[in-house]
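re: that complex we talked abt at group meeting.

here r the seqs, copy pasted straight from the sheet so there may be weird spacing, ignore it
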Amino acid sequence: MHSLTEENYLKAIYRLSQSGNLKISPTAIAEEINVNAASVVDMIKKLKEKQLIVYDKKLGASLSDHGLKIAIDIVRKHRLWEVFLLDKLGYSWDVVHEIAEQLEHIKHEELADRLDRFLGNPEYDPHGDPIPNAKGEVPSVANTLLSEIEIGQSCQLAAIKDTSAVFLQYLEQLSISIGTRIKVLEKIPFDHSIVVQIGKENKTTVSKKLADSLLVY
Amino acid sequence: MHSLTEENYLKAIYRLSQSGNLKISPTAIAEEINVNAASVVDMIKKLKEKQLIVYDKKLGASLSDHGLKIAIDIVRKHRLWEVFLLDKLGYSWDVVHEIAEQLEHIKHEELADRLDRFLGNPEYDPHGDPIPNAKGEVPSVANTLLSEIEIGQSCQLAAIKDTSAVFLQYLEQLSISIGTRIKVLEKIPFDHSIVVQIGKENKTTVSKKLADSLLVY
DNA sequence: ATATAATATTAGGTAACTCTAATTATATTT
DNA sequence: AAATATAATTAGAGTTACCTAATATTATAT
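got the structure back, here u go
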């Protein structure tokens, strides 16, 4: 069996690889989970011995088949619990993540499947992230940023690239949630700010940084 | 903050005191949570320093006000999660306990209250144990054993005193669950076995040991 | 190509929780 | 009351996961 800490390292490596990180270095992992790089080196050694990852100083770390399976399983549970907390317990977007960080480590073979069925087999979590199915297959995901949408075009929010509380609270303030229709009205050359219309609301200006955190289709 | 391990020790002390244990000794705690008595002595020292328990070699351990509050909170969460697992996820009686052992340690102020509301504010868990409310008040509980019921009398199962899988599976086999009506038909002097009628079924003989594990009203 | 900066690694240590074995204290028998 | 059994405690050590500080390696810039 693998410990909670091991699971968190595997998840971190998975997330880094998903966000297109070419080389997953000890420092990158250290930043991801807020530990010292020296600790990461220790854990890399351990996970390598357990054959959950492959590590090469040049190429960085990557998950083995077994490691990937575990990581996807954690992510699946994390996202299912998020749906539960939001849909069933009425939690708000921005709190859900930290509780799911704890719930994802609850162990029981049937648990994820039962939860999945209970929630109506959702494909995406409250942040728009795809929920892997029981086989570990991951639904496809939008890969266009709001910042890439042309002037005059409309799109819908599919997912977000940041889950920090400040970010989620700001989205709430802007009345933006998954599925919200956004029309790009103008792009400011000076700082790449974008003037948008959110749903049926009046127009607002959002920063490049925000537009780079929103995935749309 | 208190660790998962500390919570488990507090819960153990609470459970021992609830089951009418006069003196809660290191050995008693050690047996309750399957650790070595020497480890318990260490932890007692720690919990005493944190003022979560009071300990006296003669009188044994007991919870302080603060310790009691924490213990009741854990028990509350444990039992609410049990209801969730049984009612919502369709788990069977005998599995529910071990998963709730993990879930009870999930931390978030509002969690227990939200779960409670979602489940419809249940007063008893699947084993018939009372669920403390948000204020820490514990609903009253039956305290008559099936073995104490007179011949000819009927009663209903209120709660059980054992949560082991073998016990729960045997109950299931006998079609006994919380609320089941049981009539005492005969008592065998030789070994104190009891002949009972379970619900509308034919009569069955159950051992003294079983009759001592069933709380009725 | 060398100096400088950044990263990776090793060495040594700490905290939490566990254990076994040895010791001391308390009960129970005889 | 002495002998014996049981329980409580202390001492010493192991494991996991973390840290800091020192060193080695690799990349970047001049």
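couple things i noticed - The longest helix of chain B spans residues 65-88. Residues 4-63 of chain B form a domain with the Arc Repressor Mutant, subunit A fold (CATH 1.10.10.10).
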